[in-house]
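Incident review: delayed structure delivery

Summary: a single-chain prediction request sat in the queue longer than the usual turnaround. Root cause was a stuck worker, restarted by the on-call engineer. No data loss occurred. The affected request and its eventual output are reproduced below so the record is complete for anyone auditing the incident later.

Affected input:
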Amino acid sequence: MTAMTHLIPTMYKGNLPYTHSYPIGAEAISTALQNTPQIAQLKLSFSFHPQVTSLSFSERAIPVMGASYHHFDVRLSSSNELIKAGRYEEQWGISVQATLRTQRARVKELLLAEGLPRVAEWLATPRDEVWRYGRKSCEILYSPLDDALVIKED
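Output delivered after worker restart:
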């Protein structure tokens, strides 16, 4: 990481069993997303969902990373606590999900080559006011069966 790289703050990082690992770290993500317009607004989280990475899911595409956006208007029923906490302001986030330790190296390779550039593109795409309301995401999944990433946007 260069001296000028903004390190995206990590808001949460869950503990993992020895069978799992996070496929990519904050430094690599921060470097890859450095030139996105939201770099100063991004928050990073690392999580583990054992039901998603269990062996019964080994032939399905499993989530490994995602970018998210949410923004809602303050309404009469909006919580004052949430307003003060900034929850009604634009929120941009990056999430990383744990993978099986045996898949870590391959998933990291694919994220660096394809996944992170796609997330950077999603973040850099100009958006109109209609798009900037509600929840949006760009999810990166890994398919062990195809040994490839699958990208889903909504």
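Verification: Residues 138 and 153 are 4 Å apart (CA to CA).
Action items: add queue-age alerting; document worker restart procedure.
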